[in-house]
Amino acid sequence: MAFETWVGPIYLAAWAGKIGLPAEKLPWLTSVPLLGAVAQAFGVAALSSLASRLTLKWTCITLSLVSRTLWCLAFLLPLGHSESLGQSIGIIAAVSSAVGLTATSFWMSWMKSWVPRRFEGRFWGVRARGSTLGVLAAHGIAALSLHFFESPSSDSTLHEPFAVILIVALLSGLGSLWILGRLPYTDVSYKLRFKEILASRSDLRLIGIACLFHAGISLVGPYFPYYFTHVVGLKTSEISLWYGLTQVGMMVSAMVWGKRWDLAFSGNGRSPRQLLRFTGSILALSPLPYVIRQAEILRWIGPIEYFVNGLIWAGFQVGLSTILFRSAGKSDPARATLLFSVMTAAQGVTGALAAWLGSELSLALAPWGGFQALWVVGSLIRLVIAWWFLPRLF
Asked: Which of 130, 171, 256, 262 would you call most buried, defined as having the most Cβ atoms within 10 angstroms of its Cβ?
């Protein structure tokens, strides 16, 4: 997760702001990598005929290694115009995302094959806590790198602090592969049949509603780093610390949410529908404080809001992952790969379209505040999804 953070939309958007990439070109870095999620479905389909002869563990490790090493190409790019450099980085991000998500699709079956059903919520809670530790460390290291290497001038190079971040990311990615190689595994014999997912109304409903909420997140989410640094005038290192507080919130609450979701599915405590509506509603309202444009005020609001956002986001993510595992059923772990693959591909399309739409809306709403108006529109859209669509999963 540390690796994914360093090469993800957050730092790509912040990097774009530092080298002066025009706002209308920003969707290339924020939406094109999301399209890698579509390509992973073709990767899973291409490997599906070999699934019965492949070892899940080493398939995941090999694909992950390819995904990470692709970023070495960034150091070979010629330094030149910021737009051409941004396009090249976007292509690398998209291909790396496609290969990496293909690995994750098979990882889902690997995990599903040995995690007991009654502990699925807690499994995702433990995973969320571990991953947030990695992301938290990533933001801390990035904040230090940007603080010590950041220059007030903008140029058309890879930009020194971001080059340092990429080197650390590659080392982190190799370390994660070493850890992954030490995990146990249970090979299962199965065949992947995409038609089964497409023929199931409950599966399609889960995928469709998950895509809707993901689109609501992508509509505004990728543009906050650009807004904070390029419009408000905050330092990139400050924003990194805010995202770090989000990870602290996730780390603190992940296990609590895991237990709550297990209790909800066993009929104790709040129902899964109530938990989804609650977490979705809080996440829907999260962009509203940033209609305030004053940097002095946001320095007080931002850390608190990002921490609370982490507390709630952990609940939503743990819940959605638990729902996916439960939808896959007990007898066929391969369905976890299929569900994740189709859902990720659909989210890639809807996320990319939403990110592009967010950019267009911010320009169209320029007379009413631009990004500030976008935060209001995005919150209203998210709130409708949280109250009308999320409860329909049950």
From this structure: 262
One DSSP character per residue, 184-231 reads ----------HHHHHT-HHHHHHHHHHHHHHHHHHHHGGGHHHIIIII
Instruction: Please report whether residue 191 resides in a domain.
Output: no
pTM: 0.76
Residue 63: pLDDT over 80:
yes
Residues 61 and 176 sit within 8 Å (Cβ to Cβ): no
| pLDDT tens digits along 181-199 | 887 766 555 566 777 777 7
In whole angstroms, how far apart are CA 152 and each of 10, 25, 118?
20, 22, 53
Residue 128 domain-assigned (yes or no): yes
Cα separation, 261 vs 270, whole angstroms: 9
Highest mean pLDDT of the ranges 49-63, 145-159, 274-288 = 274-288
Q: List the one residue out of 351, 312, 381 whose CA is nearest residue 30.
A: 351
- Domain contains 371: yes
Task: Give pLDDT tens digits for 323-346.
Answer: 988 887 766 777 888 888 888 888
Provide the domain count of the chain. Answer: 1
Q: CATH code at 79?
A: 1.20.1250.20
**Domain of 129?**
2-182+196-393
